[in-house]
Amino acid sequence: MENMKKAAKPPIKEHFQLKETIVTILAEETVHIEAAKEAIRFHRSELENYIKEDPFFKLTLDPYPCPKNAPEIVRRMEKAGSQMGIGPMSAVAGTVSALAVEAMKKAGASYALVDNGGDIALINDRPVVVGIYAGQSPIKNLGFILEPRKTITGICTSAGTVGPSISFGMADAAIVFSEDVSLADSGATALGNAVGIGKEAVEQAFEVVKGVSEIKGAVVVQGEYIGIWGEIPKITRAKVRYESITKA
Questions:
Q1: Which residues are registered as beta bridge partners of 230?
Q2: pTM reported for the whole predicted model
Q3: pLDDT digit string (tens) for 96-123?
Q4: Is 210 left (phi over 0), alpha (psi -120 to 50) or beta?
Q5: DSSP state, residue 243
Q6: How many angstroms separate the CA atoms of 215 and 148, rounded?
Q7: Is the CB of residue 77 less than 8 Å from the CB of residue 50?
Q8: Which residue of 30, 63, 86, 119 has the fewest CB atoms within a 10 Å radius of its CB?
């Protein structure tokens, strides 16, 4: 019938690695996945070339200015890190994810997701459930329901007890939501750095993101405690397939 909506095609999923960048890409069409991979190759090369000229950009844990003519990936990373008071590399994974999804959208995708080690950018024309992975925390099998939207959004995660990234806190998962995916990544790092042990420490950690208007909401899991601040997607019970997690 003419009034019936076209059924959504099941997404194609591809695991892609380029040096230290390890991503999972989801889309309806192969051409959209190829667009993501090409964007990752291009922007990673731009970043590598920039770091060759300015190695301190990769090393510093503090805000670090870059020139106005720096590559797009560098400028986005610098801006996000500076907003959160930390180094630009705190935003690298989320920025790569965002640039890849932007390329997919430009290629015609209405459903596209790039998961770069827990730093996710997506645009979705159907509901999507994103699972929460919090390592050894007893808080398991929960996920966020992302309702359909036409704009790209970021869901980024940092942890002091899970994964290889630098964190100075004790979070099993520090999750930040923002339409600025780079900022979501740096925000998650800053939030994770602020998490100590116990209920009060979880509550106090949100102070680092409360003054950042572009951050819509955040979640912290620390041991048996879960804290929520701001506007977040609906939480649901979800069977999290841990073998599907993109690992560095």
A1: 217
A2: 0.90
A3: 999 999 999 999 999 999 999 999 999 9
A4: alpha
A5: G
A6: 19
A7: no
A8: 30
